[in-house]
Each structure stands twice: as C-alpha cells, then as structure tokens.
C-alpha cells in the first residue's frame, strides 16, 4: 500500500502525472484541479495516494491533500460511484464544500457535478450520512467522558458549530482533534470560514501539505 509518493514531477498529461522517484516513474491519475495545483515540471512534489488493484487493472490515484484523498475514499464507497467518476468530481468541488453539501442535504449542488444525477446525489447524501453516524457511534464509545460533555455542552448548543464539527468529521478527522482545532477558531465566523480554518488547523497539526 502506498501512502504517498514524493519525487520529481516528470510529466503532466491529460488526466495524469508521472513522478520520478529514484529513476522509477509512477503514473498517477489526478483531477484537473489537483494537477493545476501540484507544481511545475522538474519540481519535487508530494501526492497522497490511493492504490487500486482490480482483476484487469492496477492504478494509482493522487491527491494534493489528505482531505481530497478522504473525499475520494468516501465517494467510491457509495454504490454506483466509481473511481473515474469520483476523480472527476474532485476536479469541480472542494472538500469543505462537499462536506457542507452533505450535512445540509444540498442535493442541487451535488447533482451539478459531472456524472452525478439527482438519484446518485441523493444516494451519496444518504449513504455518507449513515456511514458518518455509524463511525460517530463507534468513536463515542472510546472517547473520554469529559470530551463527550464538551460536545454536549458547547458544540450542540450552537447549530453552526455543530454543523462545522460534523463537516470536519465527514472529512475523516477524529473527535478529539476537531475539539482542539475548534478551540482555536473564532466562533463568530461564518460556517464555511470555520470549516476552512478547521481544516487548516488540522492539516498543520499533522504536517500535511
């Protein structure tokens, strides 16, 4: 399993890049948006990766951030959404905007994405909300009582903070890490800004690009 690839950007082509690592070229499929932001030919780049092995194909998909990778993994977990559809979607929506669409049941935003109709958009929201609910139930069994009280007494009293908290969970962050990040953010900001600053705080914590 490849967690990431770091090396010299050797090729930028339609739908993929080639990264040279010690003379070995890795062909990595990426969205158009990710390719725009990865860097220039000859630069040292790092991409988070998803390694897909199928009966007739082995492919590597690359992402500039762990949030993009998490979003890709969430999308391909939905019935009827394949890797190619997911990577195309990533080229047109940012992780934070996707998370907001999920928690707000914004079917209209999702169905505008390439390859996604109304039925698939509804399925994405339903399946991912159900997945998030199950993950939250499992995590709540393992967190300390004081953390649980923090969520109940502080987060759940403010709908905006609760939605921001849930959006960050959609992107794969743990309850404990989200709590710490939220403590550093101005709560008077808009929902979108709180989520964006939350992602920045959490990314900095793990040293992510």
Characterize the structure shown.
It is a single chain. This protein has 209 residues and is an alpha+beta fold. It has two domains: 4-64, OB fold (Dihydrolipoamide Acetyltransferase, E2P) (Beta Barrel); 67-201, 5' to 3' exonuclease, C-terminal subdomain (DNA polymerase, domain 1, Orthogonal Bundle). 52% of the residues lie in helices and 19% in strands. The chain has ten helices and five strands, in the order βββαββααααααααα. Strands 3-2-1-4-5 form a five-stranded antiparallel sheet, with helices on both faces. Strand 4 (44-54) and strand 5 (57-63) form a beta hairpin. Helix 2 packs across helix 3, helix 4 packs across helix 8 (159-170) and helix 9 (175-182) crosses helix 10. The protein is globular and about 55 Å long. 30% of the residues are buried. Residues 137-157 have low confidence and may be disordered.
The sequence of SSEs as H and E is: EEEHEEHHHHHHHHH
Strand content: 15-25%
Give the overall pLDDT as a whole number.
83
CATH architecture of the largest domain: Orthogonal Bundle
User: What fold name stands as the CATH topology of the largest domain?
Assistant: DNA polymerase, domain 1
Radius of gyration: 18 Å
- Figure out the total of helices: 10
**In which order are the strands of the major sheet placed?**
3-2-1-4-5
The CATH class of the largest domain, by name, is: Mainly Alpha
Low-confidence segments, ≥5 residues, pLDDT <50? 137-157
Q: How many domain modules? A: 2
CATH homologous superfamily annotation of the largest domain: 5' to 3' exonuclease, C-terminal subdomain
Broad shape: globular
Name the helicity range.
40-55%
Structural class: alpha+beta
Number of strands: 5
| Biggest sheet character | 5 strands, antiparallel
User: Between the first and last Cα atoms, what is the distance in angstroms?
Assistant: 20 Å
